[in-house]
Amino acid sequence: MLVIGAMAVDAKGQPRDALLPGASTPGMVRLGVGGVARNLAENLACLGTRTVLLSAVGDDPFGRMLLDATAHSGVNVEHVVTSKAHRTGTYTAVLDRTGALAHAIDDMAVIETLTPALIYRKRRLFRDAAMIVLDTNISPRTLASVFNLTKKYRRPVCVNPTSASLARRICPHLSDTYLLVPNYQEAQTICATGQDLDAEQMAMRLVHMGVEIAIVTLGEMGLYYATSDERGRIPALQRDIIDLTGAGDALMAAVIFGLLNDISVSECVRLGISAAALTLQCPETVCPDLSLDRLYDELVI
């Protein structure tokens, strides 16, 4: 498995009381490891999948912390680029009292180090991977190079659109995308119909646009999924929420794990819901004791 995209240090603040505009609010701030691609890679490694991460960090203490923590989780980080010209990526989030995201700022300029030339130098990784997983933090030109290689080596591509502001980058490549997992806002950006579509309609439209498997996530309302042969809605598992950050990454990783192991799409989606439920009960962005046994223990639907 080859995962391409961002790794970052997460700083997450959660208030004890209501957030006050223009004022400091007492609460708790946690520092941890994150980045969409890195989270996906660690989740996959937790599920026993041999995973290589292609990403970039700065030559600084945060970068070394990310590399050490990610390697410790079982991910191969030998192809992560260390840049002296950039600082390590950071993601700063302000959560509300329920653990939902209120505001966030990401600083991912270091990912510019993943150029088309570097991607082609790493083409052996594409040849040797069973599947390619990526986020859209990488530039449009680099994204195009990735898809050129995946077509050359006939490798399926799974895409996390990352954010509504970055989701449009995947639009030229939808017909070459095996799995796409946007949230509702990201799906709206990609579909861009000017119509008020619901999640089920957007999942079906993404398939019509060329995606083989489309999953539109809806947080506490679950998700809709669609392929050319089936479609359905899976409700979320009702669990106490500590932190919603990373739940979508865990969901996608569990779906990918299932697809790699020839599990049916509907069962893959249920595994994804279980992974999300486990993750939102953890203060960490990736649940540290995620495993296949725990996924099936959580699976009650």
Please explain how this structure is put together.
It is a single chain. This protein is of the alpha/beta class. It has a single domain (2-298), classed as Ribokinase (UDP-N-acetylmuramoyl-L-alanine:D-glutamate ligase), CATH 3.40.1190. It is 34% helix and 21% strand. It contains 10 helices and 14 strands. The chain has helices spanning 36-46, 61-72, 116-121, 123-128, 140-152, 184-191, 199-208, 247-260, 265-280, 292-298, and strands at residues 2-4, 8-15, 27-34, 52-54, 56-58, 81-83, 90-95, 101-107, 132-135, 157-160, 179-180, 213-217, 223-226, 231-234. An 8-stranded mixed β-sheet has the order 4-1-9-10-11-12-13-14, with helices on both faces. β9, α5 (140-152) and β10 (157-160) form a beta-alpha-beta unit. The longest helix is centred in the C-terminal third of the chain and has 16 residues, at 265-280. The mean pLDDT is 91.
Features of the shown structure:
301 residues; alpha/beta; UDP-N-acetylmuramoyl-L-alanine:D-glutamate ligase; eight-stranded mixed beta sheet; four-stranded mixed beta sheet; 10 helices; 14 strands
